[in-house]
């Protein structure tokens, strides 16, 4: 699955266009590498997103094409630094 779509489906970022812009700006990293919106993600990948001065780090637990709001929380787990 594409990175921008995963961020939207998992509800880490609410809109796909915003996820796309974050990727284009170089604020999203997968496994310590800057990632483009089209980068494929899989289970076990670690995503790091910079929002202003805050950094969010999460590990992908499940990749689904669609999810309900309750199921979205089970697709990833936040990691503490």
From TrEMBL:
CDD domains the UniProt entry points to: S4
Pfam families: S4
Keyword set, alphabetical order: Protein biosynthesis, RNA-binding, rRNA-binding, Stress response, tRNA-binding
Keyword tRNA-binding belongs to the record: yes
Gene3D superfamilies, sorted: RNA-binding S4 domain
UniProt superkingdom: Bacteria
GO molecular function, one term: tRNA binding
GO biological process: rescue of stalled ribosome
Domain RNA-binding S4: 1-64
tRNA-binding is among the record's keywords: yes
Similarity remark: Belongs to the RqcP family.
Function recorded in the entry: Key component of the ribosome quality control system (RQC), a ribosome-associated complex that mediates the extraction of incompletely synthesized nascent chains from stalled ribosomes and their subsequent degradation. RqcH recruits Ala-charged tRNA, and with RqcP directs the elongation of stalled nascent chains on 50S ribosomal subunits, leading to non-templated C-terminal alanine extensions (Ala tail). The Ala tail promotes nascent chain degradation. RqcP is associated with the translocation-like movement of the peptidyl-tRNA from the A-site into the P-site.
Record text on subunit structure and interactions: Associates with stalled 50S ribosomal subunits. Binds to RqcH, 23S rRNA and the P-site tRNA. Does not require RqcH for association with 50S subunits.
Protein known as: RQC P-site tRNA stabilizing factor
């Amino acid at each position: 699955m594409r990175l921008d779509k995963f961020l939207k489906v998992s509800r880490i970022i609410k809109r796909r266009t915003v996820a796309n812009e974050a990727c284009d700006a170089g604020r999203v990293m997968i496994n310590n590498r800057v990632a483009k919106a089209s980068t494929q993600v899989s289970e076990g990948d670690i995503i790091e997103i910079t929002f202003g001065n805050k950094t969010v780090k999460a590990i992908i637990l499940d990749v689904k094409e669609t999810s309900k709001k309750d199921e979205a929380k089970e697709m990833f787990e936040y990691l503490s630094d």
